[in-house]
Predict the 3D structure of the following.
Amino acid sequence: MSAFILIGADLCAISLLVFAVYFPRHHRRDMIVAFLGVNAGVLGVTYAMANAEISLGFGLGIFAVLSIIRLRSYEMNHVEIAYYFVAIAMGLLGGFPSSAGWLTLALMGILVLVVVVGDHPALFKSYRQQIVVLDRVVTDEEMRNAVLASMLGGRIHSSTVTRVDLVRETMVCDVRFSSEPSAPVSSTTRKASAAVSG
């Protein structure tokens, strides 16, 4: 298959991923140029490496340089990292000449489809993750989950204490919960709320 077809397919796939999937769902404009830039950069470097007589060590060195590039200005969450790696993978697929050209096109389509399905808003839409800072150290797990449930208005699936400050009497919890309609307040929740407020 012609290299121009693969390059065109890569550009179509990354445009679909960025403009039809990522931006309508996450609305983060600064990541558009990041995804497009890394895809085009990897595509160009891969194509140049595949069509030039260079040593394997040089090629590995180029990708080692690419691998140490990190975005330090803003934090990327796991979803954006997934988009980032899919952009890199599609650039690699588009840049390598392949006799199985249709397989390459199919792999690009599969990558886009996996992200579309995995990042769909309807998939486990009631499940949430939140970092919560409590203004009181609550050592009892059941009471802590009751406090968190009353604060977040949902069902707590797990809460992990990531930091405890006994001087300031605060604790940081990584909470996994699902949003649910308001339920009757249990006696445990009332006791926990009273303990935290008192």
